[in-house]
Amino acid sequence: MTRIPLLGLASILSLTITGCAATTPAVDAPAAAPFAFDGARLSDHIRILGSDEFEGRAPNTPGETKTVAYLSDQFAKAGLQPGGAIVDGQRTWTQPVPLLKSEFAVTPVIGVTLGGKPVVLTQGEDIAVRAPTNGDQGINLTGVPVVFVGYGVKAPERGWDDYKGVDVRGKVIVMLVNDPDFEGGEGQFGGKAMTYYGRWTYKYEEGARQGAAGVLVVHETAPASYGWATVKNSNTNTMFDIVRKDPKAEHPPLEGWIQRDLAVRMVADSGLDFASLKAAARKKDFRPVELKARLDVHGDARTEVITSQNVVGILPGGTHPDETVIYSAHWDHLGIGLPDANGDKIYNGAIDNGTGLAHLIEQARSFAVGPRPERSMVFMAVTAEEKGLLGSEYYAANPLYPAGKTVGMLNTDVMSVVGAARDYSIRGSAKLGLLDDLIEEATKLGRTYTPDAHPETGGFYRSDHFTFAKAGIPAISLTPGQNLFNGGVARSEEFSKTYTSKYYHQPDDEWSPDWDYSGMIADATLLHALGLRLANSREWPNWSQDSEFRAARDRTAADRR
């Protein structure tokens, strides 16, 4: 859609921080930097990929076709060779990814009975119901009992069970987002840092294991780390999943979110207090509570198996071509969805993740123009990250290059457009040798590592490095630093809040001519140094001894001898 340009995010923030200029001063790359990244090139890629012409880059749309063609062309121009699937004895630019696609034929009809009276619920406003991905051709629930199950966690290794043997088969279970530790900051789940038990993906999976007819997550902005607009825009459009042998084992018939106000009302109409019930859920002795509510959801769905694409280029190594270092970024966004207040329906995804794609293309160029690395460098743009890390999950289960000989994976998902920072970070707090290497290379560049400032958001589980980690491959997602040269931590935090509330998974995530690329350039330079180190060494990074990913890595140890 053609729109009157908004102020760029950098400009908006410059107005909110007294004394800050619209852009940050450029930071010169150290003299030893092997490649000078070009801000104009980065900007052009983001502008093109984030334009309305690409229609929000949703899988299985004309936007995907244009995106795959653009990335393949840019990889070739950067100097890469095709690195995807082999067809007729030749590598292609893509890896086909079969996905189950599901979308409602018409808006579902949803209601809840409270105090014996029916209440109509509006899709996208009171509730966000996802099109089914359990293999059903729709959702048909009538008068189904509703049970509140706290945080919906079953973690025997932590001595925690929110279900306590209560039979929830055939019922809709309502649960809180995040972990039981979130409110108090301490407990069985490591304090503020979200574990996988806090992610909505886990909660749906556990609901399916319990035989529930549905799982509804109660939205609250702080523990979710994003507002209702993000929930609505991410869950009321077309859904995808990888093709599974038994999808019902992973997905209950109904998956969705509800507004906090609706949860409060359901609890109150059951003669209970939401705050008290929420406090009780933080304790190990919590037991499920059946509410005096009955849910109705009816909606036919169109489902089919489609094929999306991961885009893959390779620079073969000169000495050890069978060993690979992977750079990755997801190419997809939300496509065309519900209109915002301005009538805009295109979710452009310029920052998320046009920035990561721009970096990926230019990082490929940086290696192709330099001396040939000893190990092979793989550059991968994966599909369907926004639908649950599906493209990377498919790759991890069907690797084009053996996991055992993959040195590491360096992921970029949302990069800085507000200037350079003195520090840098990664998503989550995982312990692995790859982080030690990153810190060492950053020190040479005069930069300081800062641990994830908001581990409660569960960032580690929200990007494609996570699926590689589960396969044992050392993997990190670099995130921009907090201590900006212009405005410090205060300006960085203000930007993050503005981005999350007004732009994240919303149509206004559009390219701006006001952006400052010095931060992207500094981060790209750091990631180049790390990749070069890995490519020209005999190092095989691993996870810490106490990491949940160590065992998977160690199972492939023989491949590296």
Architecture blueprint of SSEs:
Blueprint: H1 9-16, H2 39-49, H3 62-78, E1 81-82, E2 86-87, E3 90-91, E4 94-104, E5 109-114, E6 117-121, E7 127-129, E8 138-148, E9 154-155, E10 160-161, E11 172-176, H4 200-209, E12 214-219, H5 221-224, H6 228-235, E13 239-242, E14 254-259, H7 260-268, H8 274-280, E15 289-315, E16 320-330, E17 335-336, E18 346-347, H9 350-368, E19 375-382, H10 390-397, E20 406-412, E21 423-426, H11 433-444, E22 448-449, H12 465-470, E23 475-480, H13 488-502, H14 518-535, H15 550-554
Parallel strand pairs: 8-11, 11-12, 12-14, 16-19, 16-20, 20-23, 21-22
Antiparallel strand pairs: 1-15, 2-3, 4-13, 4-15, 5-6, 5-15, 7-14, 8-15, 9-10, 15-19, 17-18, 21-23
Describe this structure in words.
This protein is of the alpha/beta class and 561 residues long. The chain folds into 2 domains: 9-30 and 39-78 and 316-560, Aminopeptidase, CATH 3.40.630; 102-301, Glucose Oxidase, domain 1. Helix content is 28%, strand content 24%. It has a 17-stranded mixed β-sheet that branches. α4 links the parallel β11 and β12. It is globular, with a radius of gyration of 23 Å. Residues 1-33 have low confidence and may be disordered.
